[in-house]
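Sample A.
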Amino acid sequence: MHDLILPMQYVRQISSLVTDMGIDADAWLARSQLSQAQLQEDEMPLSLAQFCRLVEDVLSCTAEPAFGLLLGERLIVNTHGLLGYAAMNSTNLRQAAHLIERYIGLRTSLINVRLQEIAGETRLIFSETTPLGGISHTVFEAVILAIKNVLDFMTLGSCPLHRIAFAFPSPSYADLACEVCKCEVEYEQGWNGFVLPTAALDQPLKMADAASFRDAEQILQRELDKLSTEQSMSARVRRVMLEKQHGFPSLNLTARLFHLTPRTLHRRLQAEGTSFKALLEEVRHRLAVEHLKSGHMSVEEIAYSLGYTDLANFRRAFKRWQQQSPSAFRNAQRGGHPPPATG
Protein backbone atom coordinates (compact mmCIF):
# COMPACT_ATOMS: atom_id res chain seq x y z
CA MET A 1 0.00 0.00 0.00
CA HIS A 2 1.22 3.52 -0.71
CA ASP A 3 2.74 5.42 2.20
CA LEU A 4 0.34 8.38 1.92
CA ILE A 5 -3.44 8.64 2.05
CA LEU A 6 -4.48 11.99 0.59
CA PRO A 7 -7.23 12.40 -2.02
CA MET A 8 -5.96 14.15 -5.14
CA GLN A 9 -8.76 16.67 -4.62
CA TYR A 10 -6.66 18.31 -1.91
CA VAL A 11 -3.63 18.59 -4.19
CA ARG A 12 -5.87 20.18 -6.83
CA GLN A 13 -6.87 22.77 -4.23
CA ILE A 14 -3.19 23.51 -3.56
CA SER A 15 -2.56 23.83 -7.31
CA SER A 16 -5.51 26.19 -7.70
CA LEU A 17 -4.22 28.40 -4.89
CA VAL A 18 -0.72 28.40 -6.40
CA THR A 19 -2.19 29.57 -9.71
CA ASP A 20 -4.27 32.28 -8.02
CA MET A 21 -1.09 33.56 -6.40
CA GLY A 22 0.49 34.07 -9.81
CA ILE A 23 2.85 31.09 -9.68
CA ASP A 24 3.37 28.74 -12.64
CA ALA A 25 1.59 25.64 -11.33
CA ASP A 26 2.81 23.45 -14.21
CA ALA A 27 6.43 24.24 -13.38
CA TRP A 28 5.74 23.69 -9.66
CA LEU A 29 4.28 20.24 -10.36
CA ALA A 30 7.01 19.32 -12.81
CA ARG A 31 9.68 19.80 -10.15
CA SER A 32 8.04 16.89 -8.27
CA GLN A 33 7.60 14.80 -11.45
CA LEU A 34 3.87 15.50 -11.64
CA SER A 35 1.52 17.12 -14.17
CA GLN A 36 -1.93 18.72 -14.24
CA ALA A 37 -3.24 15.65 -16.08
CA GLN A 38 -2.14 13.42 -13.20
CA LEU A 39 -3.90 15.68 -10.71
CA GLN A 40 -7.20 14.88 -12.46
CA GLU A 41 -6.73 11.16 -11.76
CA ASP A 42 -8.38 10.50 -8.40
CA GLU A 43 -6.57 7.17 -8.05
CA MET A 44 -3.17 8.68 -8.81
CA PRO A 45 -0.80 7.49 -6.04
CA LEU A 46 1.22 10.18 -4.30
CA SER A 47 4.11 9.36 -1.99
CA LEU A 48 4.80 11.13 1.27
CA ALA A 49 8.14 12.31 -0.14
CA GLN A 50 6.41 13.81 -3.18
CA PHE A 51 3.84 15.60 -1.04
CA CYS A 52 6.51 17.03 1.26
CA ARG A 53 8.46 18.28 -1.78
CA LEU A 54 5.34 19.88 -3.22
CA VAL A 55 4.57 21.80 -0.03
CA GLU A 56 8.21 22.78 0.59
CA ASP A 57 8.35 24.07 -2.99
CA VAL A 58 5.10 26.01 -2.51
CA LEU A 59 6.46 27.74 0.59
CA SER A 60 9.64 28.60 -1.28
CA CYS A 61 8.20 29.85 -4.57
CA THR A 62 5.27 31.79 -3.06
CA ALA A 63 7.27 33.19 -0.12
CA GLU A 64 3.94 33.02 1.77
CA PRO A 65 4.45 31.66 5.31
CA ALA A 66 0.67 31.68 5.91
CA PHE A 67 0.00 29.35 2.96
CA GLY A 68 -1.56 26.74 5.30
CA LEU A 69 -4.19 29.22 6.49
CA LEU A 70 -4.99 30.35 2.94
CA LEU A 71 -5.38 26.72 1.89
CA GLY A 72 -7.44 25.73 4.94
CA GLU A 73 -9.87 28.57 4.25
CA ARG A 74 -10.67 26.91 0.89
CA LEU A 75 -11.27 23.44 2.32
CA ILE A 76 -15.00 23.64 2.96
CA VAL A 77 -17.35 20.83 3.94
CA ASN A 78 -17.92 19.39 0.44
CA THR A 79 -14.16 19.05 -0.06
CA HIS A 80 -14.08 16.12 2.36
CA GLY A 81 -16.29 13.65 0.54
CA LEU A 82 -18.39 11.23 2.55
CA LEU A 83 -16.74 12.24 5.83
CA GLY A 84 -17.89 15.82 5.33
CA TYR A 85 -21.38 14.62 4.38
CA ALA A 86 -21.66 12.41 7.48
CA ALA A 87 -20.44 15.23 9.75
CA MET A 88 -22.98 17.58 8.19
CA ASN A 89 -25.78 15.17 9.19
CA SER A 90 -24.52 14.57 12.75
CA THR A 91 -26.98 14.84 15.62
CA ASN A 92 -24.68 17.11 17.63
CA LEU A 93 -21.12 18.41 17.85
CA ARG A 94 -19.98 15.53 20.04
CA GLN A 95 -21.11 12.96 17.47
CA ALA A 96 -19.37 14.90 14.70
CA ALA A 97 -16.14 15.14 16.71
CA HIS A 98 -16.13 11.39 17.39
CA LEU A 99 -16.83 10.77 13.69
CA ILE A 100 -13.83 12.87 12.65
CA GLU A 101 -11.68 11.22 15.31
CA ARG A 102 -12.52 7.75 13.99
CA TYR A 103 -12.49 8.31 10.23
CA ILE A 104 -9.97 11.12 9.59
CA GLY A 105 -7.55 8.42 8.40
CA LEU A 106 -9.73 7.86 5.32
CA ARG A 107 -8.97 11.43 4.20
CA THR A 108 -5.34 11.79 5.27
CA SER A 109 -2.67 9.64 6.88
CA LEU A 110 -0.68 12.75 7.85
CA ILE A 111 -2.65 13.61 11.00
CA ASN A 112 -4.37 11.84 13.89
CA VAL A 113 -7.28 13.44 15.77
CA ARG A 114 -8.55 12.72 19.26
CA LEU A 115 -11.30 14.21 21.42
CA GLN A 116 -10.12 14.81 24.97
CA GLU A 117 -11.29 16.46 28.19
CA ILE A 118 -8.34 18.40 29.65
CA ALA A 119 -8.22 21.14 32.28
CA GLY A 120 -11.99 21.59 32.17
CA GLU A 121 -11.95 21.98 28.38
CA THR A 122 -13.15 19.77 25.55
CA ARG A 123 -10.38 19.69 22.99
CA LEU A 124 -10.00 18.23 19.53
CA ILE A 125 -6.28 17.53 19.44
CA PHE A 126 -4.35 17.01 16.18
CA SER A 127 -0.99 15.21 16.04
CA GLU A 128 1.40 14.09 13.32
CA THR A 129 1.40 10.42 12.38
CA THR A 130 4.89 10.88 10.97
CA PRO A 131 7.39 13.74 11.42
CA LEU A 132 6.60 16.40 8.80
CA GLY A 133 9.60 18.63 9.39
CA GLY A 134 9.45 22.04 7.75
CA ILE A 135 5.90 21.59 6.45
CA SER A 136 4.41 20.69 9.85
CA HIS A 137 3.06 24.19 10.60
CA THR A 138 1.50 24.48 7.16
CA VAL A 139 -0.22 21.08 7.41
CA PHE A 140 -1.57 21.74 10.91
CA GLU A 141 -2.95 25.14 9.91
CA ALA A 142 -4.65 23.76 6.80
CA VAL A 143 -6.15 20.68 8.49
CA ILE A 144 -7.32 22.44 11.66
CA LEU A 145 -8.94 25.27 9.70
CA ALA A 146 -10.54 22.74 7.33
CA ILE A 147 -12.15 20.84 10.24
CA LYS A 148 -13.22 24.14 11.82
CA ASN A 149 -14.98 25.00 8.53
CA VAL A 150 -16.91 21.72 8.72
CA LEU A 151 -18.05 22.37 12.30
CA ASP A 152 -18.98 25.97 11.50
CA PHE A 153 -21.08 24.82 8.55
CA MET A 154 -22.95 22.09 10.43
CA THR A 155 -23.77 24.42 13.35
CA LEU A 156 -24.65 27.30 10.99
CA GLY A 157 -22.19 29.42 12.95
CA SER A 158 -24.22 29.17 16.15
CA CYS A 159 -21.46 27.46 18.19
CA PRO A 160 -18.22 29.34 17.51
CA LEU A 161 -14.97 27.79 18.74
CA HIS A 162 -13.47 29.28 21.87
CA ARG A 163 -9.89 29.21 20.64
CA ILE A 164 -7.39 27.50 18.39
CA ALA A 165 -4.04 26.36 19.78
CA PHE A 166 -0.76 25.73 18.01
CA ALA A 167 2.37 24.22 19.53
CA PHE A 168 4.76 26.30 17.41
CA PRO A 169 5.96 29.87 18.15
CA SER A 170 3.84 32.87 17.20
CA PRO A 171 4.48 33.69 13.51
CA SER A 172 4.71 37.10 11.84
CA TYR A 173 1.16 36.61 10.51
CA ALA A 174 -0.50 35.94 13.91
CA ASP A 175 -3.00 38.78 13.38
CA LEU A 176 -4.02 37.26 10.04
CA ALA A 177 -4.55 33.90 11.74
CA CYS A 178 -7.07 35.43 14.15
CA GLU A 179 -8.83 37.13 11.25
CA VAL A 180 -9.04 33.99 9.13
CA CYS A 181 -9.98 31.67 12.00
CA LYS A 182 -12.50 34.15 13.45
CA CYS A 183 -11.56 33.22 17.00
CA GLU A 184 -8.70 33.56 19.46
CA VAL A 185 -5.51 31.87 18.24
CA GLU A 186 -2.76 31.02 20.74
CA TYR A 187 0.77 29.80 20.08
CA GLU A 188 3.39 27.82 22.04
CA GLN A 189 0.58 25.83 23.68
CA GLY A 190 2.24 22.42 23.58
CA TRP A 191 -0.59 21.00 21.45
CA ASN A 192 -2.34 21.64 18.14
CA GLY A 193 -6.11 21.81 17.81
CA PHE A 194 -9.06 23.72 19.16
CA VAL A 195 -11.36 24.05 22.14
CA LEU A 196 -14.97 23.08 21.50
CA PRO A 197 -17.85 24.88 23.25
CA THR A 198 -18.54 22.28 25.96
CA ALA A 199 -22.01 23.62 26.76
CA ALA A 200 -23.06 23.14 23.13
CA LEU A 201 -21.57 19.67 22.54
CA ASP A 202 -24.85 17.80 22.99
CA GLN A 203 -27.28 20.37 21.67
CA PRO A 204 -29.35 19.09 18.69
CA LEU A 205 -28.34 20.53 15.34
CA LYS A 206 -30.82 21.87 12.79
CA MET A 207 -29.14 20.08 9.88
CA ALA A 208 -29.13 16.67 11.61
CA ASP A 209 -30.48 13.70 9.68
CA ALA A 210 -30.12 10.45 11.60
CA ALA A 211 -30.85 8.18 8.62
CA SER A 212 -28.36 9.94 6.34
CA PHE A 213 -25.75 9.90 9.09
CA ARG A 214 -26.25 6.18 9.72
CA ASP A 215 -25.99 5.29 6.03
CA ALA A 216 -22.87 7.42 5.55
CA GLU A 217 -21.17 6.02 8.64
CA GLN A 218 -21.82 2.44 7.51
CA ILE A 219 -20.01 3.19 4.24
CA LEU A 220 -17.17 4.91 6.11
CA GLN A 221 -16.81 1.87 8.38
CA ARG A 222 -16.62 -0.47 5.38
CA GLU A 223 -13.94 1.76 3.86
CA LEU A 224 -12.04 1.77 7.15
CA ASP A 225 -12.23 -2.03 7.37
CA LYS A 226 -10.97 -2.27 3.79
CA LEU A 227 -8.13 0.14 4.53
CA SER A 228 -7.12 -1.85 7.60
CA THR A 229 -6.98 -5.02 5.52
CA GLU A 230 -4.87 -3.37 2.80
CA GLN A 231 -2.44 -1.73 5.21
CA SER A 232 0.97 -3.20 5.77
CA MET A 233 1.34 -5.46 8.81
CA SER A 234 3.59 -2.91 10.51
CA ALA A 235 1.01 -0.12 9.99
CA ARG A 236 -1.71 -2.32 11.51
CA VAL A 237 0.44 -3.20 14.53
CA ARG A 238 1.40 0.45 15.00
CA ARG A 239 -2.27 1.42 14.95
CA VAL A 240 -3.15 -1.15 17.63
CA MET A 241 -0.34 0.17 19.82
CA LEU A 242 -1.52 3.76 19.45
CA GLU A 243 -5.11 2.79 20.23
CA LYS A 244 -4.04 0.93 23.38
CA GLN A 245 -1.28 3.33 24.43
CA HIS A 246 -2.13 3.12 28.15
CA GLY A 247 -1.27 -0.56 28.21
CA PHE A 248 0.61 -1.79 25.15
CA PRO A 249 -0.38 -5.30 24.06
CA SER A 250 2.30 -7.98 24.05
CA LEU A 251 3.51 -9.71 20.88
CA ASN A 252 1.38 -12.70 21.79
CA LEU A 253 -1.80 -10.64 22.32
CA THR A 254 -1.21 -8.54 19.20
CA ALA A 255 -0.80 -11.68 17.11
CA ARG A 256 -4.03 -13.04 18.54
CA LEU A 257 -5.87 -9.82 17.58
CA PHE A 258 -4.89 -10.48 13.95
CA HIS A 259 -5.65 -14.24 14.18
CA LEU A 260 -1.96 -15.05 13.71
CA THR A 261 0.63 -16.97 15.68
CA PRO A 262 3.42 -14.88 17.25
CA ARG A 263 5.90 -16.59 14.90
CA THR A 264 3.85 -15.66 11.81
CA LEU A 265 3.48 -12.04 12.97
CA HIS A 266 7.23 -11.88 13.59
CA ARG A 267 7.94 -13.21 10.07
CA ARG A 268 5.57 -10.73 8.43
CA LEU A 269 7.09 -7.79 10.25
CA GLN A 270 10.57 -9.06 9.43
CA ALA A 271 9.61 -9.19 5.74
CA GLU A 272 8.69 -5.48 6.00
CA GLY A 273 12.08 -4.67 7.50
CA THR A 274 10.96 -4.15 11.08
CA SER A 275 10.04 -5.97 14.28
CA PHE A 276 7.52 -5.79 17.11
CA LYS A 277 10.21 -4.38 19.42
CA ALA A 278 11.17 -1.66 16.89
CA LEU A 279 7.53 -0.63 16.40
CA LEU A 280 6.96 -0.44 20.15
CA GLU A 281 10.07 1.72 20.47
CA GLU A 282 8.82 4.01 17.67
CA VAL A 283 5.38 4.43 19.26
CA ARG A 284 6.85 5.06 22.72
CA HIS A 285 9.17 7.70 21.23
CA ARG A 286 6.32 9.46 19.43
CA LEU A 287 4.04 9.47 22.49
CA ALA A 288 6.83 10.56 24.84
CA VAL A 289 7.56 13.59 22.66
CA GLU A 290 3.84 14.42 22.39
CA HIS A 291 3.28 14.17 26.16
CA LEU A 292 6.33 16.28 26.96
CA LYS A 293 5.24 18.96 24.50
CA SER A 294 1.73 19.09 25.97
CA GLY A 295 3.08 19.62 29.49
CA HIS A 296 0.12 17.97 31.22
CA MET A 297 2.02 15.01 32.72
CA SER A 298 5.16 14.77 34.82
CA VAL A 299 8.11 12.82 33.46
CA GLU A 300 7.33 10.06 35.97
CA GLU A 301 3.71 9.85 34.78
CA ILE A 302 4.80 9.71 31.16
CA ALA A 303 7.28 6.92 31.89
CA TYR A 304 4.60 4.93 33.70
CA SER A 305 2.02 5.46 30.94
CA LEU A 306 4.51 4.15 28.38
CA GLY A 307 5.11 0.96 30.33
CA TYR A 308 8.43 1.81 32.00
CA THR A 309 8.54 0.52 35.59
CA ASP A 310 11.96 2.13 36.07
CA LEU A 311 12.22 5.89 35.46
CA ALA A 312 15.95 5.54 34.73
CA ASN A 313 15.18 3.20 31.81
CA PHE A 314 12.81 5.78 30.33
CA ARG A 315 15.41 8.52 30.69
CA ARG A 316 18.03 6.36 28.95
CA ALA A 317 15.62 5.52 26.13
CA PHE A 318 14.66 9.17 25.65
CA LYS A 319 18.30 10.26 25.50
CA ARG A 320 18.85 7.62 22.82
CA TRP A 321 15.88 8.98 20.82
CA GLN A 322 16.44 12.72 21.21
CA GLN A 323 20.06 13.04 22.40
CA GLN A 324 18.84 14.89 25.51
CA SER A 325 17.00 14.10 28.73
CA PRO A 326 13.20 14.38 29.01
CA SER A 327 13.55 17.42 31.30
CA ALA A 328 15.96 19.15 28.91
CA PHE A 329 13.60 18.49 26.02
CA ARG A 330 10.61 19.89 27.92
CA ASN A 331 12.69 22.88 29.04
CA ALA A 332 13.62 23.61 25.41
CA GLN A 333 9.94 23.43 24.39
CA ARG A 334 9.13 26.04 27.05
CA GLY A 335 11.73 28.44 25.71
CA GLY A 336 14.29 27.69 28.38
CA HIS A 337 12.06 28.11 31.44
CA PRO A 338 12.58 25.47 34.12
CA PRO A 339 10.03 22.62 33.90
CA PRO A 340 7.59 22.13 36.77
CA ALA A 341 8.13 18.37 36.92
CA THR A 342 11.30 16.53 37.84
CA GLY A 343 12.96 14.19 35.41
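Sample B.
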Amino acid sequence: MSFKLKDEEMTLDNFNETTYEIICDFDNFSGERIGLKLRTGKDEETVFYYDLEDKKLVLDRSKSGKLCTEEYGVVRKCAMDCKRLKLQIFVDTSSIEIFVNDGEEVFTSRIFTKRDSNGISFFANGSTNLKANIWNI
Protein backbone atom coordinates (compact mmCIF):
# COMPACT_ATOMS: atom_id res chain seq x y z
CA MET A 1 0.00 0.00 0.00
CA SER A 2 1.15 3.53 -0.78
CA PHE A 3 -0.20 6.83 0.41
CA LYS A 4 0.65 10.40 1.36
CA LEU A 5 0.11 11.66 4.89
CA LYS A 6 -0.27 15.34 5.69
CA ASP A 7 -0.85 16.37 9.32
CA GLU A 8 -2.90 13.25 10.03
CA GLU A 9 -3.03 9.80 11.54
CA MET A 10 -4.30 6.92 9.43
CA THR A 11 -5.49 3.73 11.12
CA LEU A 12 -5.53 0.50 9.14
CA ASP A 13 -9.11 -0.67 9.15
CA ASN A 14 -9.78 -4.30 10.01
CA PHE A 15 -6.18 -4.92 11.06
CA ASN A 16 -6.43 -7.36 13.94
CA GLU A 17 -3.07 -9.13 14.30
CA THR A 18 -0.70 -9.65 17.22
CA THR A 19 2.28 -11.15 15.35
CA TYR A 20 3.48 -9.69 12.07
CA GLU A 21 6.32 -8.18 10.06
CA ILE A 22 5.97 -4.75 8.51
CA ILE A 23 8.27 -2.89 6.14
CA CYS A 24 7.68 0.86 5.84
CA ASP A 25 9.43 3.31 3.55
CA PHE A 26 8.98 6.98 4.42
CA ASP A 27 10.36 9.54 1.97
CA ASN A 28 9.90 13.12 0.86
CA PHE A 29 9.11 14.09 4.45
CA SER A 30 8.96 17.45 6.16
CA GLY A 31 7.54 18.90 9.35
CA GLU A 32 7.97 17.71 12.94
CA ARG A 33 7.43 13.92 13.16
CA ILE A 34 6.62 10.87 11.08
CA GLY A 35 6.00 7.41 12.43
CA LEU A 36 3.66 4.64 13.43
CA LYS A 37 1.78 3.25 16.39
CA LEU A 38 1.83 -0.50 17.02
CA ARG A 39 -0.28 -2.79 19.21
CA THR A 40 -2.82 -0.01 19.68
CA GLY A 41 -5.97 -0.45 21.74
CA LYS A 42 -7.96 1.18 24.49
CA ASP A 43 -5.41 3.40 26.29
CA GLU A 44 -2.47 1.43 24.82
CA GLU A 45 0.02 2.04 22.02
CA THR A 46 3.69 1.60 21.28
CA VAL A 47 4.95 4.58 19.29
CA PHE A 48 8.00 4.73 17.02
CA TYR A 49 8.78 7.96 15.23
CA TYR A 50 11.42 10.10 13.58
CA ASP A 51 11.71 13.56 15.13
CA LEU A 52 12.73 15.64 12.12
CA GLU A 53 13.51 18.76 14.14
CA ASP A 54 15.82 17.08 16.69
CA LYS A 55 17.02 14.45 14.17
CA LYS A 56 16.27 11.55 16.53
CA LEU A 57 14.53 8.22 16.35
CA VAL A 58 12.25 7.62 19.33
CA LEU A 59 10.64 4.45 20.72
CA ASP A 60 8.02 5.35 23.33
CA ARG A 61 6.73 2.45 25.46
CA SER A 62 5.01 4.63 28.06
CA LYS A 63 1.59 3.28 27.01
CA SER A 64 2.70 -0.24 26.04
CA GLY A 65 0.71 -2.05 28.72
CA LYS A 66 2.29 -3.51 31.82
CA LEU A 67 5.68 -1.85 32.28
CA CYS A 68 8.82 -3.83 32.89
CA THR A 69 12.41 -2.72 33.51
CA GLU A 70 11.22 0.81 34.24
CA GLU A 71 14.61 1.58 35.77
CA TYR A 72 15.98 1.66 32.21
CA GLY A 73 13.28 4.08 31.05
CA VAL A 74 10.26 3.75 28.81
CA VAL A 75 11.52 6.05 26.04
CA ARG A 76 14.57 5.18 23.96
CA LYS A 77 16.24 7.54 21.48
CA CYS A 78 19.17 7.71 19.12
CA ALA A 79 20.51 10.30 16.70
CA MET A 80 19.57 9.94 13.03
CA ASP A 81 19.88 12.30 10.10
CA CYS A 82 18.35 10.88 6.95
CA LYS A 83 16.42 11.80 3.81
CA ARG A 84 14.65 8.42 3.63
CA LEU A 85 13.54 6.14 6.45
CA LYS A 86 13.14 2.41 5.93
CA LEU A 87 11.78 0.40 8.86
CA GLN A 88 11.60 -3.37 9.08
CA ILE A 89 9.61 -4.24 12.19
CA PHE A 90 8.83 -7.57 13.82
CA VAL A 91 5.99 -7.57 16.35
CA ASP A 92 4.78 -10.41 18.53
CA THR A 93 2.82 -10.80 21.75
CA SER A 94 5.58 -9.44 23.99
CA SER A 95 8.32 -7.84 21.90
CA ILE A 96 9.14 -5.45 19.10
CA GLU A 97 12.30 -5.39 16.97
CA ILE A 98 12.88 -2.42 14.68
CA PHE A 99 15.63 -2.38 12.04
CA VAL A 100 16.22 1.13 10.72
CA ASN A 101 17.68 1.65 7.24
CA ASP A 102 18.78 -1.98 6.84
CA GLY A 103 20.34 -2.21 10.31
CA GLU A 104 21.98 1.22 10.61
CA GLU A 105 20.16 1.39 13.97
CA VAL A 106 18.22 -1.31 15.82
CA PHE A 107 15.67 -1.11 18.63
CA THR A 108 14.52 -4.15 20.60
CA SER A 109 12.04 -3.92 23.42
CA ARG A 110 9.56 -5.89 25.49
CA ILE A 111 5.92 -4.82 25.54
CA PHE A 112 3.00 -6.26 27.46
CA THR A 113 -0.18 -4.88 25.94
CA LYS A 114 -3.61 -6.43 26.37
CA ARG A 115 -4.51 -9.21 23.98
CA ASP A 116 -7.01 -7.02 22.12
CA SER A 117 -4.51 -4.17 21.60
CA ASN A 118 -3.67 -5.15 18.05
CA GLY A 119 -4.28 -2.08 15.91
CA ILE A 120 -1.78 -0.16 13.82
CA SER A 121 -1.68 3.41 12.51
CA PHE A 122 0.70 5.71 10.64
CA PHE A 123 1.06 9.42 11.31
CA ALA A 124 2.72 12.62 10.15
CA ASN A 125 2.98 15.93 11.94
CA GLY A 126 3.95 17.44 8.62
CA SER A 127 3.94 15.37 5.45
CA THR A 128 5.46 12.21 4.01
CA ASN A 129 5.05 9.66 1.27
CA LEU A 130 4.70 6.16 2.70
CA LYS A 131 4.85 2.65 1.29
CA ALA A 132 4.07 -0.22 3.64
CA ASN A 133 3.77 -4.01 3.39
CA ILE A 134 2.58 -6.26 6.20
CA TRP A 135 2.89 -10.02 6.57
CA ASN A 136 1.34 -12.20 9.27
CA ILE A 137 3.82 -14.38 11.09
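B remarks: Residues 2-136 form a domain with the Jelly Rolls fold (CATH 2.60.120.560). The radius of gyration is 14 Å.
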